[in-house]
Sequence to fold (145 residues):
Amino acid sequence: MKTYFDTGVFLKLYTPEPESEAVQRFVLRRRSPIRITSLHLSEATSALKLKCFRGEGSERESNAAIADIEADLHARVLVRLTCDWEEVWNLGRFLSEHHAARIGTGTLDVLHVACARLLGYREFMTTDSRQKACAKAAGLKAISP
Fold:
C-alpha cells in the first residue's frame, strides 16, 4: 500500500528527531520510493531554515539536509509527483469548511490530506493528532511512525 508522508514525517528521514528511527524502519520495510510533491519540498525547506532561526540547528546542517533531499530526488529514492493545485486547493477548502472548526487543522495540514486523496493514497502517515483526525475524516487510514 502506498503511504503518503506528511512533511513532518518526511523530514524525520533527514534530521535526527524523535521517531526518526521508526520512520526509517518503516521506509526500509516498504522498499519503495517515497513520493513527494512540491508542497513537501517547499515546506521542508522552510522547516529546515526555521530550525536555524530557532537555534535548533546550524545553517550547515540545514543545507546538508536540503542537499541530501536533492540527492535522493536525483537517485529516485524520492519521486516527485505533480498535483492539480486548483483541485488540491478546492478539496482543501472543502475539508476546512467541514472539519477545521471541530478538529483544528491548519491550511498546510488540509492541503497534505487533499494531495493524498487526489493522488490516490489510502494511507496517511503523520505525528500530528489533528492532521490524523482530518485524514480519517477524509477517508484515509491515518497511521503514526
In short: The chain has a mean pLDDT of 95. Helices lie at 7-11, 20-30, 38-53, 59-74, 85-103, 107-118, 129-137. Residues 85-103 form the longest helix (19 residues).
